[in-house]
Amino acid sequence: MLKTYETGGVEIYRMGRSIAGIVPYWVHCFLAGDVLIDTGTRYAGKQFMESLSGKKISAIINTHHHEDHTGNNAKVIKKHGARAFAHHEAVPFIENPRLLNLRLYQRLVWGHPAGSEAAILGSVFNTGKFSFEPIYTPGHSTGHVSLFEKKQGWLFTGDIFCGIKNIYLRQDEDFNFSLNSIEALSELDVDVIFCSLKGPVKNGTASLKAKLDFMKTLRRDAERLKASGAGPVEIRKKLLGDEDRMFYLTAGHFSKQNLINSVLAGPGKPAG
């Protein structure tokens, strides 16, 4: 399923696989000038490619290598003659998606993307109309970047933002690295965040600072409880409550406990 709209000069593509009439997870990609930022899930590929018909696309910038962000790279490259670019740590996964080792729910909701060639992003990506600054923002994945267009006040955050009060974490995510990334981004003068999960978010800098405050408060409270003798499960229950459908739908790959485990582990130690 695909929905398209435009805001502030950016074309937005909101897509997801419809299962029994329900889209369990929406993802967004964005077209700014002739640069496509991420390509979504392959299960929406037919509609997505139809929506791009007649448009000039010279480049794809992948914020990271996950299957819901690279699903239509190969199709766009073939049809539009675009080149794909990504952080050097993400390139091997984009070129060989079998390295992703997708779980069942990932295969059902997003599917394996086809492999596509990708070049390594430099320090600046200039187009005829816009200039994007790739900012290394680790935490959600290896080789994750956000893209800042200073003149427009745009920040494309991939999956490093995903709302102010995000209470779930993947097993391979690093909470403390993510906090550091959000802290760096919060120093920018951002008008609109273009988030891969939430879509456009106004008051960008204020939203980033609010998320940073939430994360710091959560970490402080978790460390205080740990110092008082509470274990990770007790801390999760006190701060975030019981696990919910996200845990069960993903067989624990996304969970509240992963978040608490990563908070307590310290930087460089993912939840799993």
Question: How would you explain this protein's 3D organization?
Answer:
- The chain is α/β, with parallel strands linked by helices.
- 31% of the residues lie in helices and 22% in strands.
- The protein has helices at residues 45-51, 73-80, 91-95, 104-109, 175-185, 204-227, 232-239, 245-249, 256-265, and strands at residues 2-7, 10-15, 27-32, 35-37, 59-61, 83-86, 119-120, 125-126, 131-136, 145-149, 154-158, 169-170, 192-195, 199-202, 254-255.
- A 7-stranded mixed β-sheet has the order 1-2-3-4-5-6-7, covered by helices on one side. It has a 6-stranded mixed β-sheet with strand order 8-9-10-11-13-14.
- Strand 5, helix 2 and strand 6 (83-86) form a beta-alpha-beta unit.
H/E order of the elements?
A: EEEEHEHEHHEEEEEEHEEHHHEH
State the distance separating the first and last CA atoms.
Answer: 32 Å
Mean pLDDT: 95
Q: What summary fits the major beta sheet?
A: 7 strands, mixed
Helix content range of the residues, please?
25-40%
The parts where pLDDT drops under 50 for at least 5 residues are: none
Please provide a brief summary of the model.
The chain is 31% helix and 22% strand. It has 272 residues and is α/β, with parallel strands linked by helices.
Features:
272 residues; 9 helices; globular; 31% helix; 6-stranded mixed β-sheet; alpha/beta
